């Protein structure tokens, strides 16, 4: 598939993901408030924000899982809602709380999803084996997904996102409740994906994780992007956590403790 990498002669490269005036409300509650955001190609992009900031809603609209009330999402210049088949072929998505057929083994699940995507059998067999090897899931060859641990479920979820060879990965809380060994394996895979020219969008509450992995970051609060840019520019002279607290307006001053714990 050929994807345009420049909008026009002399123009900036097309963003891996571009959100333009993206908007979503649920009744009187505005979840995402006309968000504009550009994710550079080849970046490891972190999206952070407090609970209820609109991160998951924004990403769900960005990848075509939730229809926006207004605005536009484009993957490598392809409009997600105007040309969904082409856009979705360019990205792999790991939503938070991903549901998948659980009465299949990992191999069966990947094979089934690959067939749905129309990947030729001779190509699919090799990809499935390579993914199982890389994700260290071969020892669970006869284990059904329903019996997978949390770390194994995250691994097989990432494998399904990578199966069709996407250019962009969109991952919502991929390390939540994952043990350190599984987390290290997932991090290594994602770093290699970016090094090979892919782009990753990672949504997380863990500031230290974002600082470790990401080169670019955006901070959301109350449905809006309050800061975005290279990691060093957003965090300034302090840590990302300090910048995050300052940007979202959290009061960290003196507060009364629990009375029954006072000595």
From TrEMBL:
Q: Which domain of life is it from?
A: Bacteria
A single GO BP term for this record reads:
response to antibiotic
GO-annotated cellular components: plasma membrane
Q: Which UniProt keywords apply?
A: Antibiotic resistance, ATP-binding, Nucleotide-binding, Transport
Residue span, ABC transporter domain: 17-247
Subcellular location per the Swiss-Prot or TrEMBL entry? Cell membrane
Q: Which PANTHER family match?
A: ABC TRANSPORTER ATP-BINDING PROTEIN, DOXORUBICIN RESISTANCE ATP-BINDING PROTEIN DRRA
Principal place of residence: membrane
Signal sequence, renumbered to the chain: none
Q: Which organism is it from?
A: Catellatospora chokoriensis
The record's section on PROSITE patterns has: ABC_TRANSPORTER_2
Q: What is the name listed in the Swiss-Prot or TrEMBL entry for this protein?
A: ABC transporter ATP-binding protein
Phosphoprotein in keyword set: no
Q: Which GO terms describe its molecular function?
A: ATP binding; ATP hydrolysis activity
Q: Which CDD domains match?
A: ABC_DR_subfamily_A
The answer, when asked if Nucleotide-binding is one of the entry's keywords, is yes
Q: How does it sit in the membrane?
A: Peripheral membrane protein
């Amino acid at each position: 598939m050929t994807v345009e990498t420049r909008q026009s002669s002399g123009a900036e490269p097309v963003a891996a993901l571009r959100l333009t005036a993206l908007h979503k409300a649920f009744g009187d509650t505005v979840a995402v408030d006309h968000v504009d955001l550009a994710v550079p190609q080849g970046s490891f992009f972190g999206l952070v924000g407090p609970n209820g900031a609109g991160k998951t809603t924004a990403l769900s609209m960005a990848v075509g899982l939730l229809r926006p009330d207004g605005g536009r999402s484009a993957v490598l210049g392809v409009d997600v809602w105007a040309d969904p088949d082409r856009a979705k072929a360019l990205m792999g998505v790991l939503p938070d709380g991903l549901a998948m057929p659980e009465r299949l083994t990992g191999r069966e699940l990947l094979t089934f999803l690959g067939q749905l995507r129309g990947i030729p059998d001779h190509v699919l067999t090799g990809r499935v084996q390579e993914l199982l090897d890389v994700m260290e899931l071969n020892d669970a060859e006869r284990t059904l997904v329903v019996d997978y641990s949390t770390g194994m479920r995250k691994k097989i979820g990432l494998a399904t996102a990578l199966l069709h060879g996407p250019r962009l990965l969109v991952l919502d809380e991929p390390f939540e409740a994952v043990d350190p060994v599984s987390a290290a394996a997932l991090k290594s895979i994602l770093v290699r994906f970016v090094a090979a020219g892919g782009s990753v969008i990672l949504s997380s509450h863990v500031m230290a994780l974002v600082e470790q992995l990401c080169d670019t970051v955006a901070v959301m609060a109350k449905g809006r992007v309050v800061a975005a840019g290279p990691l060093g520019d957003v965090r300034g002279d302090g840590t990302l956590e300090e910048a995050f607290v300052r940007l979202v307006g959290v009061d960290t001053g003196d507060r009364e403790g629990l009375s029954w714990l006072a000595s």
